[in-house]
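Much of our argument rests on the idea that a fold can be written as discrete symbols. Part of our work consisted of pairing the sequence of a single chain with a tokenised description of its backbone. We regard such an encoding as a compact summary of how the chain folds. The amino acid sequence and the backbone structure tokens for this protein are reproduced below.
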Amino acid sequence: MTPTGEQGPALRADAARNRARVLQVAREQLAAGDDSLQLNAIARLAGVGVGTVYRHFPTRHALWEALSAERFQELVDEARTAAADEDALAGLHRLLRFTLMRMVDDTGFAAVLESASDAEAQTSALKAELDRTVAHLLDRARRIGAIRRDVEADDVRRLLCGIEHAVRSGDGDGDGDPTRTEVYLDVLLEGLRPPR
């Protein structure tokens, strides 16, 4: 996959540099603890015009998508690994834990994962690939009677988004409580089992 913003015709060299600079500044802001991603402030810090930033990233969400592309690809890769695991249930458990930990660690990534609409075609393609891979994994787990029959890939994503929200809302600083994360994940895993 090509990086977001480089699909279709290639960017001119100066446009590619400007886009890379904006992403670099946004990452620096996040590393410094500022997740507001104010596009006007990023333009100023990157030394580019506000219009340049909005041309590449028309919304804050579009910027989050670009910043999350690498992490999303890691999630898709992890889903493929889980789907190939001989033990489908173990693969599913590992994938759910991996996904939830990434979501709790990165609010922007969580927002991209839970969003119903995408700003970039690359994000939509990654979500579709993730859903196909998780659906395959769920089918394998259903065939061995390890999970209930009425849960689909989209349900799993929504449930993880709900858990991520629950972890953050119960914590004063919004960073998440690791002990609650494990408890909630265990509840989800238990809930995926077929009814007795």
Observations:
- The CA atoms of residues 33 and 98 lie 23 Å apart.
- The chain has nine helices and no strands.
